[in-house]
Amino acid sequence: MRDNPRRRDLGAYPFRIDMVPRFGDMDLNNHLNNVAVARFYEEGRVRFHFDLHHRPGLDRFRGFIAHLAIDYLAEGHWPDPAQIGVGVVHIGGSSYRLGLALFQRGVCIGLCDSVLVHRGEHGSEPLPPLLREALESLRLRDE
Question: How many beta carbons lie within 10 A of that of residue 8, not counting itself?
Answer without folding.
Answer: 19
